Amino acid sequence: MGFIRVYIFADKAEPKPPLGPILGQLGVNSSNFCKDFNESTAELAMFDEVFGFLLTVDLLVLENRTVKFFIRKPTISVLLKLVNAISIANSNYFFKKRFVMRINDFLKLVIFKYGFVNMKELKRVSFICKGTARALGICLIK
Fold first, then answer.
1. What is the dihedral of CA 57, 80, 85, 78, to 10 degrees?
2. Contacts of 58 (CB under 8 A, 6+ apart)
3. d(C-alpha 54, C-alpha 104), whole Å
4. How far apart are CA 97 and CA 28, in angstroms?
5. CA distances from 28 to 1, 8, 102, 114 (A)
6. Which terminus of the chain has fewer Cβ atoms in its 10 Å neighbourhood, N or C?
7. Contact indicator for 23, 32 with CB cutoff of 8 Å
8. Residue 89: its pLDDT value, please?
9. pTM beyond cutoff 0.85
10. Do the Cβ atoms of 105 and 83 come closer than 8 Å?
């Protein structure tokens, strides 16, 4: 039994390096894993067609050489970029554009990412996420 954390683009898993050899060392059929993973993440690929939607995936390899995978939620910066349609290809978007986002929408993103209901924890995490939004050039308004 083993645990591996990998980063895979949504709907773009292929049984070639680097993923294929990692799964091959554990005796796992990489083509079956790639087929199952691509089927489960097909709807996420439409969010960012140009660069792909990078996901953190936890793989649990069982003793009978089967794989269970758990997809983690994307980082808050990726979520903010998707909501505000910021293109990563434009390297100077910090200086050229200023995006505006309502605080209610921002808090919905934070709750989606972290799932907190405790107000103290929500304030703490939203303070950290506000710094990320500020670094991306996003102004929060009421």
1. -20
2. 3, 4, 5, 69, 70, 72
3. 26
4. 47
5. 11, 17, 46, 32
6. C
7. no
8. 44
9. no
10. yes
With contact defined as beta carbons under 8 Å apart, do 55 and 10 qualify? yes
The stretches of 27-135 forming alpha helices (DSSP H) are 30-40, 76-84, 93-96, 103-114, 119-135
Residue 97 to residue 88: CA distance in whole angstroms: 13
Using one digit for the tens of pLDDT, what is the confidence trace for 19-78? 999 888 888 899 999 999 999 988 876 766 655 678 889 999 999 988 999 998 888 888
Q: Is 129 left (phi over 0), alpha (psi -120 to 50) or beta?
A: alpha
Structure tokens of 97? 């554009």
